[in-house]
Amino acid sequence: MNIRKISLAAILIVLISMLCAVVYTGMSGSQYNPKTMININKAIAAILAYIAIIVIGPVPGELTVETKLKLSALAVFSPVVFGILLWPAVSPESPYELVSLSSGSLGFAGFIIFTAAAFLCGGLTAIVPGEFGLHASRAAVPLGISIAAVRSGFVTDATARLSDVSQISQTYNIFAIESFLWAVIAAAGFAGSFAARKLTNQDTGINDLKPLVKGWKQSVMAVAAITAVSMIVISILGTSPGIRDRELSAIMLQPGNGQAAFAVLAAFTLCGWAAMRYFKINYIPACIAAVILPAAIRLFAFKQEDILNLTQRYPLSFLTNPSLALTPVMIISFGMIGAVCGYWLAVLQKRNAALAGEEAAVEMANLAARTAVGVADGKP
């Protein structure tokens, strides 16, 4: 192990984290703005927490320190590129507006810039070798665009400026289409990773698709099940304080972006883990489910009659279902991150169980051998 290389890599990660703070401050306006400084502290804390998880995570015997540092650098690089440096490409005019096609912030130029950057970012993940690097490369772009998701305004702030229910309905129709644009951006990261690993003679992960295509009926059922379960979990974890209503059952305030992100992340982590743990299905169906979830929310959670009653009797900061507070970029980014994390939780759980079984078998064999030696020597 080269201590000098590791020390230089660690210093580089710290410097990049400091650069994040400087660039973010410059783009946010006055560096003495208390809200800006709080956001900077949160960003740095999130980056350092992610690095700590990688460096002292639950797989000490499977990753070298050098590989962990490369993963840490990747965890810093992607959020900096998409959430800070390229933020002006999708930044709305007002901090209260959405990062969305509906607000006009996601235009053709921004889409092309993000897609090209996703391809390059996916390609750079080839620096991390092995299967951990392969799967980390698929979470790299979602990790980056997740910063744009949490910097977006609230859905209720956008819908409050609309005059009638038909315009609100149109917003969710746009969400259903927009999710495919963010999916293309995420897929560009997959393509960049594939190309880079192909050029460097590493595993491209193309074999992950073969079982899904061969057993396409099971894959379709998995996508449908994950979509349904994720909506239920999000509706539970995304619930914020509200009031009871005789006609609408219950209404609640718009959850914050942090709570919404947690709800999506937890829902897809659970689904990714269960799919691998019990059905031996990788995270690709869960990623597909994240793409179609906005359409499912429009079909099953958005009820025009309830929205009409809500707008007539309550302020538009209230919602009838927590899933209505989610933007497509929020679902795609945190959904795909959760799917990959859940998959790896199941894989590591299985490996640890197998390792524990092997250790128990060796211990039993040693005990049997000692017993046999004792009997041969005439000892009890």
UniProtKB/TrEMBL annotation:
Transmembrane parts of this sequence: 37-59, 71-90, 106-128, 140-160, 180-199, 220-238, 258-276, 283-302, 322-346
Protein name: Uncharacterized protein
Keywords (A to Z) from UniProt: Membrane, Transmembrane, Transmembrane helix
